[in-house]
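This part of the workshop introduces the protein records we will be handling. An example says more than a description, so a record of this kind follows.
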Amino acid sequence: MRFLLALLLLFLSKSLSASNYDWGKTGHRVTGAIAEKYLTKKTKRNLDKLLNGESLALISTYADEIKSEDKYRPYGPWHYVNVPFDSTYEEHPKSEKGDLIQGIDHCLKVLNNDNSSKEDKIFNLKMLVHLIGDLHQPMHVGLSEDKGGNDFQVRWFGEGTNLHSVWDTKMIEGYGMSYKELADNAARLTKKQRKAIAQGTHREWMEESRGLVKNVYDNTKKGEKLGYRYSYDYFDTVRSQLQKGGIRLAKVLNEIFG
């Protein structure tokens, strides 16, 4: 009886913490798998040396997996950035604890520094892969007042949840495909289209995501019952963001390691 109770408590704790996962494991792995399709041969060789053969899909969830360790808690604010819609990132006061943009900036600085240790490069590479994914999950560039949608309560097919969780995991899980299936079935794009997506900086990509999250807030009400119609309206956006994240991650990695 005690064993069954322990299992139940473990399941509940994992279920409750799932809403804090950024894109969820499946979403991050989709972005990692798509990125691998567009890496140069030189980039692949250099990443293979650093990661000892581990894939981008595998390491993409690392930044979430370390959240429970006290020594990694200072990296928590790197997963999101909150800016009011009537302001810009440059104008708005920066968090002293860091944010998603500052986190990416730091990772790039370490990875582009020839004097960085191998250990530091591996850690910051794993973080970068994850953070580029977060950058394309609209709720991670949301509003501070509802903690990026975590305090925005809705119902998903009759069950209580929050808007952040719907975008992180619920829509993706509801689609019923593995990360590999989603990556393999990403939209077919021409070289010109991929080049257009890869243009810009991570600050510009954040602004693009902010435009999406504003649309989400404009079209979702607190307490609303969400389900098939919501997925019909927004799942193509989810797939597009996962693909953009992969293409842009590949661009960043090719610039560093190619």
